[in-house]
Specification:
mainly alpha, 2 helices, 79% helix
Length: 66
């Protein structure tokens, strides 16, 4: 019964976090903040795709090596 569940976030904790974010950023800044986070995630995913494409050898290069 004395077990502490680390990482468990309940509805009260989520409500408290939302209230703190509203107090810190205000209602008008939150959409801008979410837009910035969304565009950052999109750029990160695009960068990951570019990295995967660069890691794959081209067919022409593999034919030259054969």
């Amino acid at each position: 019964m004395n077990t502490i569940l680390l990482g468990f976030i309940g509805p009260w904790q989520i409500g408290l976090i939302v209230a703190i974010v509203l107090l810190l950023f205000g209602g008008k800044k939150i959409p801008q903040l979410m837009k910035g986070i969304g565009s950052g995630i999109k750029e990160f995913k695009d960068g990951m795709k570019e990295g995967d494409d660069a890691a794959k050898p081209d067919d022409k290069e593999t034919e030259k090596l054969s």
